[in-house]
Amino acid sequence: MSICIDPLGDAGLTFFSKISASITHEIKNSLAVMNESAGYLEDVTLMARKGIPLDPDRLAALASTMLKQVQRSNAILKNMNRLAHSLDEDSRQTDLNELVELMAHLSERTVVTKGFRLAVTVPDQPPAVFTHPFFLQNLIWLMVNFVMTVCGENKNIMMEPAKTRTGAEIRFSGLDRLTDESVLDFLAQTGGMMLDALNAACHPAANQGRITISLPDDIRQPAISQQKQ
After folding, report:
1. Is residue 40 domain-shared with residue 12, that is, in the same domain?
2. Who has greater pLDDT, 226 or 222?
3. 197 and 111 share a domain?
4. Sheet with 167-173: strands ordered across
5. Residue 219's pLDDT band (boundaries 50, 70, 90)?
6. Total tally of structural domains belonging to the chain
């Protein structure tokens, strides 16, 4: 028996599974460091029982290492929790500063592993739109993976949300190899479907190395321009 999943749901499952895999890998790394520290602490305990003097500086460094890994793991789990709760409602008022920064953290391992750098600049006044946060997170993740294929040789990508007259936008720049053809390929796949689900529009500017996602102020109202150039 085959199980049928609609394309949008399938894209969401793919996104969630890849992010989950990345997160569990990061947690595993933290646990490995803590396990190594615990092993050393056990050795120190045995040495102390034999009357060997303890090294306070080494113990302090050990405690600091373990604390940092606990804090790192806690931050990773908080981000995962925020992602999971983005499905609590079909749509809601969403702070784009927070959402973009969250996706930068969740995409960090993928970006760094491939040798890229993703920098985020957010305005002092957070732009907000009434939208579906999970689909928007999915779209940003798709965009991050796409722009890495058209980034310049310095491999630096900039992501920046901004308020507009009709809603908000998220700009990706540093895309020196962006072409209209590459954008069409992206839109022909899951990217175009996710844009439709968000009533959003894609505006590439290949000559400026930039691509912009325009979001309506309210997902229930289509964006002013739906041209996907």
Report:
1. yes
2. 222
3. yes
4. 117-120, 156-163, 167-173, 210-216, 201-205
5. very high
6. 2
Which is it for strands 156-163 and 117-120: parallel, antiparallel or unpaired?
parallel
- Tell me the β-bridge partners of 157: 118
Residue 228, pLDDT > 50, answer no
Q: Report which residue type is found at 112.
A: V
Report yes or no: 180 and 224 within 8 Å, Cβ to Cβ.
no
Q: Which two tokens stand for residue 131?
A: 């939208």
What pTM did the predictor assign? 0.87
The span from the CA of 137 to the CA of 141, in Å, is: 6
pLDDT at residue number 119: 96
Strand, helix or coil at 228? coil
Residue type, 110: T
Q: Tens digit of pLDDT for each residue in 167-201?
A: 999 999 999 999 999 999 999 989 999 999 999 99
167: Cβ contacts below 8 Å, ≥ 6 apart:
129, 214, 215, 216, 217, 218, 223
Give the span between the Cα atoms of 30 and 24, in whole angstroms.
Answer: 10
Complete DSSP assignment for 168-225:
EEEEEE--TT--HHHHHHHHHTHHHHHHHHTT-EEEEEGGGTEEEEEEESBTTS--S-
How many residues are there in the chain?
229
Q: Which domain holds residue 173?
A: 92-216
